[in-house]
């Protein structure tokens, strides 16, 4: 797609996390995440940019996340927005959690989990759509723990695949799909 800011795009996102390591069958929803990548040669100011799912993008609910003033994504770096605070790695420089009063990213379950699909949107501060991806389309199924990832990884013109199909990692928030650093 043609993007207002060509170099910034959604590189990876995880709708359905695994259960917590402590056990159970309920996904650890805090672990939902959206990874934004800047493949350009200059930093991009993300202040006021927003992340939506389908319901918030429709206007039915508030944005899932609004990037805080002063949030700058350097060239060649990725910024990860997790659903909940418990998922943010200690010390991570380019990571935060959804700042919508604890409501989280709210990605719906996938088609193969007896639920509707959903979508992710990245919207600029001026309200224009920057990037999006949907798993509402029949045939785009969600598997627990498997993130959607650009293919090739970190390519703004890439198509979409499961991260696991690239380098065998279920998901790689804050890292390249082969788990090397950005
Ligand atoms: Ca990644």
From TrEMBL:
Pfam families the UniProt entry points to: LTD
Domain LTD: 2-137
PROSITE patterns cross-referenced by the UniProt entry: LTD (PS51841)
SUPFAM superfamilies, A to Z: Lamin A/C globular tail domain
Protein name in the entry: Lamin tail domain-containing protein
């Amino acid at each position: 797609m043609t993007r207002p800011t060509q170099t910034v795009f959604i590189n990876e996102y995880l709708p359905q996390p695994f259960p917590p390591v402590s056990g159970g069958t309920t996904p650890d929803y805090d672990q939902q995440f959206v990874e934004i990548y800047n493949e350009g040669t200059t930093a991009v100011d993300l202040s006021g940019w927003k992340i939506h799912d389908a319901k918030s993008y429709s206007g039915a609910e508030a944005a899932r996340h609004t990037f805080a003033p002063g949030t700058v994504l350097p060239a060649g770096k990725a910024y990860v927005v997790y659903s909940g605070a418990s998922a943010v790695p200690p010390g991570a420089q380019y990571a935060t959690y959804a700042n919508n009063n604890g409501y989280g990213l709210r990605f719906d379950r996938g088609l193969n989990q007896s639920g509707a699909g959903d979508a992710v949107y990245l919207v600029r501060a001026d309200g224009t759509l920057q990037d999006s991806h949907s798993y509402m389309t029949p045939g785009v199924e969600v598997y627990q723990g498997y993130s959607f990832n650009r293919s090739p990884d970190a390519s703004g013109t890439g198509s979409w695949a499961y991260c696991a199909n690239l380098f065998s990692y279920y998901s790689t928030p804050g890292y390249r799909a082969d788990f090397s650093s950005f």
